[in-house]
Amino acid sequence: MNKKNIMITVVTVGLLAGCGGGGGSSISGISDGGSTPDIGTKDPKFYSKEKLGESLFFDQNLSLNRKTSCATCHDPDHAFIDARFTKSAVDQTVFIHGAFSVGDDGSALGGRNTPTAAYALFNPTFGKNSKGVYVGGQFHDGRATTLQDQATRPPLDGAEMMMPDEQSVIERIEENPDYVASFKLLYGTDIFDDIDASYQAMGEAIAKFEKTDEFAPFDSKYDRFKQCREGGGRTSECLQKDNWTVDEDLGMSLFFSEANTNCATCHTINSKSEAPSKELFTNFEYENIGTPRNIAAMDTRAALGLQDANATFKGLGGFVNESAHLGKGKVPTLRNVAVTGPYMNNGVFKNLKTVLEFYDHIHGQGNHPINPETGLAWGHNDHNATINHAVLRTGLELDDRAIEALEAFLKTLTDKRYEHLIK
Q1: Is 242 within a domain?
Q2: Could you report the per-residue pLDDT of 35-83, keeping only the tens digit for each?
Q3: Has residue 313 been placed in a domain?
Q4: Exposure of 130 by Cβ count < 10 A (0-12 exposed, 13-18 middle, 19+ buried)?
Q5: Residue 322 belongs to a domain with what CATH number?
Q6: Where are the alpha helices (DSSP H) in 213-262?
Q7: Is 237 part of a structural domain of the chain?
Q8: Among candidates 377, 365, 379, 397, which has minimal Cα distance to 262?
Q9: Looking at the whole model, is its pTM more than 0.90?
Q10: Using an 8 Å Cβ cutoff, are 144 and 137 in contact?
Q11: CA of 275: how far to CAs of 4, 279, 378, in Å?
Q12: What rounded mean pLDDT belongs to the chain?
């Protein structure tokens, strides 16, 4: 990715009040004291936490071998997913496209498919909602309670950025005079006296950047249609305005029809979150939908002497230590779903159409008993006892026409800047 090509729209600090783990902007706090604190001989380069976080997000120096940044696995040019191609260690002709990310040493391999960082700012803090259901958090299993919490973890992960401890990361930050001056301006002149405080400040700054419009523009074809309708336009006029196809129109009807599909049961029409007027296409809950094992990725990890990747994913049950939730992963947003493959927490499916055919299969009596990518039966899940058959078997079976229409509609959820990536 080319950082110079990224156009950043920084959300003002006032709009972000209350976000992240720290206080509000220290910029206004400086003037309250009547004088600027002593931040050393160099003027700050970053005068907001958002801009500081942006630089940290792209900084490869925060990894062991100075080769990996947050943006390496969350590429802004590819809807904030890992767009790199990884060769299988078993068959060098097989590419595992982003199923598992390669670590900073060029050989370590993670155990989960990297989720998009786009729209992640709207995930509520992990916990139980008013219905007593677990919601929110970051990562597939919610183990990071907030976006700031998530931002502090990759630098110390042995399969990601691979730094040994917090102090080592802070020492890398202190190598950069621009960082030192800006941290002191935004977090206080004594911020580097406390390693934990400075490390958390790093996490907050990155989270602040991830809460800017860069990550959540809400400008997809579907958003443009919805905006037209909310502006008083007739449905037929709004559909025609953005050249909606017959398939897209049918797919939209199917998606939001409880009588035909169960899509909106989990990928709800209204987020009812921090963006109540927007649609995030997730209820933030956790489900086991019977995702089969990723055999190709398993073979690659085994060849590298790594633990079975499927065995490492206990899902929500592993995080909260409740067997009733084993294998459950967070319901992902469907925004940019057409350009964020491979799919599922283990990257087992390459194509969006395959995901839809799998849902029809797991429905119980579907028309698609064979995985089109392998030519074989779909395979098995490791935690069958927690599969939510009640939700999965709601709605009608999907024929090929319905599959094609749903895929066409899901493509309309792609941010405008990524529409050129749609196959």
Answers
A1: yes
A2: 444 444 456 899 999 999 999 999 999 999 999 999 999 999 999 999 8
A3: yes
A4: exposed
A5: 1.10.760.10
A6: 221-230, 235-241, 246-255
A7: yes
A8: 397
A9: no
A10: yes
A11: 30, 8, 37
A12: 85
